């Protein structure tokens, strides 16, 4: 027989510990801050230990509180996942994968029908966003992430390493790096959190040893998909991911007139730790590894 404190007091403590705010915990739980404080006081009395250090306008976990917070959060996450799974209709299950707008448009959308062929009992939902979704909160079952990490609370499987090269429409007739001085440079504003290692025209110019080009001039886009479209339309030369424009290179819409190439980071398929064997995650990973990874 389990001898547990009331579930309401454990929920109040877990929310307050996660947010380090009684007020924010109350908002999440739909109760008043006074009710949260009362529940936590009851829990502390039942345990015979203080769980928070209270100060004006802020709270902090005591060592006993910190030791309790981690296991409780994992327990509530497991309960949430179990309830969510139980609510799913067996005949219509949905697997949600998050990726950037460009990765979704260029690599996932063309392969979406194959997911249904491989998993006829599942529906696929593609969540395209350049902001990072909270997988632990259930915003998606899994995600494609790019960069060096670290990724606390997530487990990942590498898919491919990116290479960036100067690409342009063949209509621009670029043949040597010096030709870049006569065309518009297309830029993409990176927001991936890998500052200093992101591909840029200035980094490329240094690697190529090219002088006499204003590497900061040109047109900038805040999303990679728009930069790709601009290059295909012949509006200038762009430093683009060869992974994302493989089809344009194969069809001749874009060409790589010269090198060098800049090595990027790896794309990874990630999911919350411990979720690797969940049916939705397993279905998504099978599809990605079969259809999107190199050689697919």
TrEMBL record:
- What domain of life does the native source organism fall in? Bacteria
Is the keyword Transcription in the record? yes
Looking at the keywords, is Magnesium present?
Answer: no
Give the InterPro entries listed for this entry: LysR-type_TF_proteobact-type, LysR_HTH_N, LysR_subst-bd, WH-like_DNA-bd_sf, WH_DNA-bd_sf
Q: Which UniProt keywords apply?
A: DNA-binding, Transcription, Transcription regulation
Read off the PANTHER family from this record. GLYCINE CLEAVAGE SYSTEM TRANSCRIPTIONAL ACTIVATOR, HTH-TYPE TRANSCRIPTIONAL REGULATOR
Record family assignment: Belongs to the LysR transcriptional regulatory family.
Which named protein is this?
A: LysR substrate-binding domain-containing protein
